[in-house]
Amino acid sequence: MQIPNQDTIIALSTAPGVGAIAVIRLSGPEAIEIVNDVFHGKSLTEQESHTAHFGTIRDNERADGIAKIIDEVLVTLFIAPKSFTKENVVEISCHGSPFIVQQIIKLFLRKGVRLAKPGEFTQRAFLNGKFDLAQAEAVADLINADTEAAHTAALNQMRGGFSEQIKQLRQELIHFASMIELELDFGEEDVEFADRQDLKNLVEKLLSVIKILANSFDLGNVIKNGVPTVIAGKPNAGKSTLLNALLNEEKAIVSDIAGTTRDFIEDEINLEGVVFRFIDTAGLRETEDKVEAIGVSRTREKMKQASLIIYLFDMKNDSIVEIHRDINMLENLGVPFIKVGNKVDEAQPELYEKLKEGNDVLFISAINKENLEALKTKLVETVNLDKFKTGDTVVTNIRHYDNLIQTQNALTAVMTGLESDITGDFLALDIRQALHYLGEITGEITTDDLLSNIFSKFCIGK
Ligand code: GDP
């Protein structure tokens, strides 16, 4: 859909600050004329799309009547609809000085151009049909991607892989919806255009595809946000020391006194393209009953939110009974965990003997940074990124995940309805719901709230 008579917007598109070059972008019907008005060089209105032109930008509205040069620039033209926004777009490459950028932007604001809102260029691209909503969101993900896996996932999504799948599912469902709606039009006459068994088969198929997509979110979330990892263990086991050693900087407070690390500290390390987000469990210290520490409810809650637990125990002070009890508790929790015996430099020899065979324990000395590489390798091994490399679609966006789950619920209701032979009007209701949630993913159905919610998270200039 083309929205006519939009105003022309402007923003700095490169990062703010001093640089060799800064790029200021204008988009809108008047973009070329307005730039032409202050540009000294060729007449821009007579140039072809995708051409670059050297010249100067001059402030021609000064009180003294002198058209003062602001900068020498290179202007690139993109004539609608062959541009990012499908509108006329001009990119002005000027010298990367915040002063020059400010002067140029102010000049255009005086000429009636408006400052772009966050994500407005991308929003216009979406509204003008350049790409769908899921692809627009992938633009932001791509810019924010800081690992190879995140980059690949965002690129796949931006290039429309995921959208295609969703649109296809929706198309199949629309076909059936229209058959059912047709039945409703015939009301009394008791006709069935939509074969119930065919509909069942279709819903079953859709449910299985949606399930695969929804399940991929676990991996997608890891790719995008990292693996939430908890280091769990009794006070003084060496958790802060280990975290410090892993982060390689003094981010956690290491102390002999239990209780110094008061709040959960979150930090990240990037191991072979996987980000581990550490959640330090200072809450352990809130209990008087230190023996029960690992079972404390707040810690348990944190541990349940984690995708991975490093269970750290103290080879110098802990007993085999305590260790086994903790391991038991962790096994019941159902979150994958790695068993790590710390303070191996001062280990009780009999404890070491008991644990060294067949217990799958990794022995480290956090304080001496001993065997940390083995721990890092183990961390990476627990996250199976290989699955991702097959090129399957991976859902990385929680909004998409939410909508998939809602679609799943609506389709399950359709299935239940079909099995109990409910009337077409009820079926139609649930099918419409499913269509709605699927449509919201790609933006075939949108509301202003949804759009502003998505695009306000973008940077200005995107
Ligand atoms: P937390 O309460 O689990 O966070 O434990 P800390 O990291 O504060 O460590 C408690 C004490 O154990 C400190 O005195 C550390 O210096 C000490 N510690 C930590 N790691 C090691 C280790 O590998 N070997 C030895 N001998 N002491 C350690």
UniProtKB/TrEMBL annotation:
Membrane spanning stretches: none
Name of encoding gene: mnmE
Named cofactor requirement(s): K(+)
Residues binding K(+): 236, 255, 257, 260
Binding positions (Mg(2+)): 240, 261
Residues annotated as binding (6S)-5-formyl-5,6,7,8-tetrahydrofolate: 25, 91, 130, 462
NCBIfam families, alphabetized: mnmE_trmE_thdF, PRK05291.1-3, small_GTP
Pfam families the UniProt entry points to: MMR_HSR1, MnmE_helical, TrmE_N
Residue sites binding GTP per the record: 236-241, 255-261, 280-283
Assigned keywords, A-Z: Cytoplasm, GTP-binding, Hydrolase, Magnesium, Metal-binding, Nucleotide-binding, Potassium, tRNA processing
Entry's cofactor comment: Binds 1 potassium ion per subunit.
GO molecular function: GTP binding; GTPase activity; identical protein binding; metal ion binding
EC top class, as a word: hydrolase
Residue intervals of the TrmE-type G domain: 226-384
PROSITE patterns found in the cross-reference section: G_TRME
Enzyme Commission code: 3.6.-.-
Name under which the protein is recorded: tRNA modification GTPase MnmE
Similarity annotation: Belongs to the TRAFAC class TrmE-Era-EngA-EngB-Septin-like GTPase superfamily. TrmE GTPase family.
Biological processes per GO annotation: tRNA methylation; tRNA wobble uridine modification
Function: Exhibits a very high intrinsic GTPase hydrolysis rate. Involved in the addition of a carboxymethylaminomethyl (cmnm) group at the wobble position (U34) of certain tRNAs, forming tRNA-cmnm(5)s(2)U34.
InterPro entries: G_TrmE, GTP-bd, GTP-bd_TrmE_N, GTPase_MnmE, MnmE_dom2, MnmE_helical, P-loop_NTPase, Small_GTP-bd
Quaternary context: Homodimer. Heterotetramer of two MnmE and two MnmG subunits.
Cell compartments where the protein resides: Cytoplasm
Assigned GO CC terms: cytosol
